[in-house]
Amino acid sequence: MCVSAYRIISLSNKAYRVTLYQCPRNALAILDIAKVADVLVFVIGADADAAAGSAGVIPMDTMTQHIATIVRAQGMPAPLGVVQGLHRFDAKKIVSARALATNRLQSLIADDLKVMSLDTADEADQLRRFVANIKLR
Questions:
Q1: Where are the alpha helices (DSSP H) in the chain?
Q2: Maximum separation of any 2 CA atoms in the chain, in Å
Q3: Which CATH number covers residue 27?
Q4: How many domains does the chain have?
Q5: What is the pTM of this model?
Q6: How confident is the model over 81-92, as pLDDT tens digits?
Q7: What is the distance between the terminal CA atoms of the chain, rounded to a whole angstrom?
Q8: Alpha carbon distance 30, 99 (integer Å)
């Protein structure tokens, strides 16, 4: 496995240190990161077509479902869901788009999964604080 395929960001201050790894879309790489991670962040995009459609389901490919299944089987550290792209919706559809993404992530990962949105600098700061204070498994 090539180490250069990972994107690494390190942030620190006096109270905590956070290192973020962006994995390649490879099941073995994700399993390797999941073995040593304290928190796994699952990111999903808010799809305008799915929110507007009548199906009420955000589509996920089989690779995503496969990775979620094997990470759960291996033993998952503290999971966190993130929804991006809600800023593209008008005010009336944001709630339904967020609910669709939340339901999809919770059905894929865990029923008690905390899901946050990440579109603004304030939401990024809120996510940083949440990750710093999350209860580890």
A1: 27-36, 48-52, 62-74, 91-108, 121-133
A2: 49
A3: 3.40.50.300
A4: 1
A5: 0.77
A6: 998 888 888 888
A7: 27
A8: 26
